Amino acid sequence: MKAYMKRYGWEFGLSMLAYTIIMISSTYILKRYEVGIYHWPLAVAPAVPLWFAVWAYIRAVREMDELQRKIHFEAIAFSAAVTLVSFSTLGFAEVRGLNHPWTILTWPVMCFSYGVGLAIFTRKYR
């Protein structure tokens, strides 16, 4: 495994660990106490480690060779298209009366479809 991928694995893993801890903690605090001045900062606090994960990914992509970058770009384009169509469809359904907090699924849908796209395009360029 290349050095930049090991570093990415550590950076991404630590970011996701921090995300998990902050998400659980902030959810626990917000459910236990009344809304106050701290409510919004605690509600959005889990997004901070996600930015570190994004930065780790960008750094890893910058160190990839051209073929790997192309594969990842196509996987991201696939993921963006799947997410766009999925959530547009849910938006149309919401206009017709379906009222659920579907936006929380954006990140998992993007990650899953990115993984599928990565598998498809890696196989394509073998």
Strand residue percentage: under 5%
What is the chain-wise order of helices and strands? HHHHH
Span between N and C termini? Answer: 18 Å
Low-confidence stretches: none
- Helix/sheet category: mainly alpha
Portion in helices: over 70%
Whole-number average pLDDT? 90
Q: For this entry, what is the oligomeric state of its chains?
A: single chain
Question: How would the blueprint of this fold be written?
Answer:
Layout: H1 3-32, H2 39-44, H3 47-62, H4 66-95, H5 106-124
Helix pairs in contact: 1-3, 4-5
How is this structure best described in words?
- The model has no long low-confidence stretch (mean pLDDT 90).
- The radius of gyration is 18 Å and the shape is flat.
- It is mostly helical.
- Helix 1 packs antiparallel against helix 3 and helix 4 runs antiparallel to helix 5.
- It folds into two domains: 63 residues; 62 residues.
- Helices cover 80% and strands 0% of the residues.
